[in-house]
Write a structure and sequence with these properties.
Layout (H helix, E strand, L loop, with lengths): L1 H16 L8 H19 L3 H9 L2 H13 L6 H15 L5 H7 L2 H11 L4 H14 L3 H9 L2 H9 L11
Length: 169
């Protein structure tokens, strides 16, 4: 029984990693959304053991690869990216090497680019910031984020909410 569950999870992760050349195909889009929903349900109901099991089977890499594939399309589909960022934030808190994996798969750069594009869309920006927080959990990745301009990005996010720009009611 455990072997069937392992092969089922591995099948989901493998299907999720398949390159997405165009998300115009509703079948690919719907199957990706369904897989993300199933993974979200599996990880939300239960203990950390499921998350650690998913990490051991390459779940972090699969989620990061899906992020890169989805974000590099002509027009990124935020219906896929938002649940993907939520899963990355949940899994990344338990994966000690998530920052290094994100750097190797270029998900760090992709997330920064998406965050810069969504400065005026607070919901999309919030999900990008969740992922960046998880990626910055190690000192080396925090330094890499600093080199890539994450601090400037944070100042752009914070500036509209400073006291100079708010009015009292």
């Amino acid at each position: 029984m455990a072997e069937q569950e392992a092969s089922g999870l591995q099948l989901l992760l493998h299907t999720l990693q398949l390159p997405v050349f165009s998300l115009q195909s509703s079948c690919d889009r719907e199957s990706t959304l369904t897989i993300l929903k199933v993974l979200g349900d599996l990880l939300s109901v239960g203990t950390d053991r499921r998350i650690h099991y998913m990490i051991s089977k390459g779940g972090s890499e699969a989620l990061l690869q899906t992020l890169v594939n989805t974000a590099r399309t002509a027009s990124p589909d935020y219906d896929i990216l938002l649940p993907l960022f939520r899963l990355l934030a949940r899994v990344g808190l338990r994966d000690k090497k998530i920052g290094q994996k994100a750097l190797e798969l270029e998900a760090l750069d992709v997330t920064l680019i998406l965050a810069r594009k969504n400065l005026s869309h607070s919901q999309n920006l919030l999900h990008c910031l969740w992922a960046l927080r998880v990626f910055a959990s190690s000192v080396s990745m925090g330094a890499m984020l600093g080199i890539n301009g994450a601090m400037e990005l944070l100042f752009k996010v914070i500036t509209p909410y400073t006291q100079k720009h708010t009015r009292t009611i």
